Amino acid sequence: MSKTLDAFLKENLEDLKGKGLYNVIDPLESPNGPMIKINGRELINLSSNNYLGLATDNRLKEAANTAIQTYGVGAGAVRTINGTLDIHVKLEEKLAEFKHTEAAIAYQSGFNCNMAAISAVMDKNDAILSDELNHASIIDGCRLSKAKIIRVNHSDMEDLRAKAKEAKESGLYNKIMVITDGVFSMDGDIAKLPEIVEIAEEFDLITYVDDAHGSGVLGDGAGTVKHFGLSDKIDFQIGTLSKAIGVVGGYVAGKQELIDWLKVRSRPFLFSTSLTPADVAASIKAIEILMESTELNKQLWENGNYLKAGLEKIGFDIGESETPITPCIIGDEVKTQEFSKRLNEEGVYAKSIVFPTVPKGTGRVRNMPSAAHTKEMLDKAIAIYEKVGKEMGII
Ligand code: PMP
After folding, report:
1. How many structural domains is the chain composed of?
2. Statement: the pTM of the whole predicted model exceeds 0.90
3. If you measure from the C-alpha of residue 325 to the centroid of ligand 1, how many angstroms do you get, rounded to a whole number?
4. pLDDT digits (tens, 9 = 90+) for 260-274
5. How do residues 273-284 score in pLDDT, each as one tens digit?
6. Atom of ligand 1 nearest to the CA of 183
7. Is 135 annotated in the active site?
8. Which of 257, 292, 327 represents a domain boundary (last residue)?
9. Where in this chain does the record put each Aminotransferase class I/classII large domain (predicted)?
10. Which of 292, 317, 335 is where one domain is finished?
């Protein structure tokens, strides 16, 4: 190894470990369902994005198995050479139907969807108004585009309006985009889309909503944009196939011309091999299930509300979440990490989230209940929270 690389790695790894910021990864010895197994121990899983339990659903497994038998395990090429299978086209048609848009385009992940879509449309002569709590993939996608990034205070509509006005009136930019998460995953709050759309109309902003955590959750499952009845007002509806849908992949849904442009200009579509047949078939099945019935969605909300009520009743600060995402705010970083570790020892897997992912002093253990949890699992988790919370003087 090069001496400079060696020194760089040693110094920085030590630094991260010293600050408690080095991620320790616990491999699962089971599917990522409501219960998981780590190091031979069964734990109640409150950390996955498998909101509806579809990642382990038999109907999806069956669809994936059939696709593997029909098409094999790999798509064999990028989409524009000959890596577009008929089921890729079917997936995109389903996504457009699901999102109430003219068309959709699928990518290999939600992360590279943001890298792809922003930079296909925005360039150095443009500006992007970006909520300060937007996801890392949005931030990276904005940087890649080379557009001027204007950070907007979180969900602060006065700040957004002032900055949109200033950008518009400066005459410096060809295009201006406003970009936001639909649901913010650290606190579970929902973007103020009606106000954002109003400001966008006033200043002719391109609207971009990454609904990774809203799809399958809000709007009877169709997402945050549908929840507010704004399907014809948002230019880019981004989603991921990896959370409520339970598989892997990302997508943009929007007007036909936008999707046509992304198909010729977005680089991961042009230069990275397409989603595997199993991913595609399982995703189609998941979307069909979501469009046919709201049963899983209802169960998710019931479980989310049950967990929230239980934790609040025993004295935890669960923040201001408007979705099933349930943060348990502890505050101090070291105490938060210790709390998560003790929960784990008692049988609950709930990850701590601390600075720099969330502001200093707002460390929390974040709970992601799913439709697949039973009341017994949630009751047990609440009892463990109570035990550890009292023991550590948090409640
Ligand atoms: N956008 C948001 C808002 C997300 O929360 C995530 C996942 N953490 C992504 C994009 C990336 O999605 P994926 O995991 O499908 O790459």
Report:
1. 2
2. yes
3. 15
4. 999 999 999 999 999
5. 999 999 999 999
6. 3
7. no
8. 292
9. 42-382
10. 292
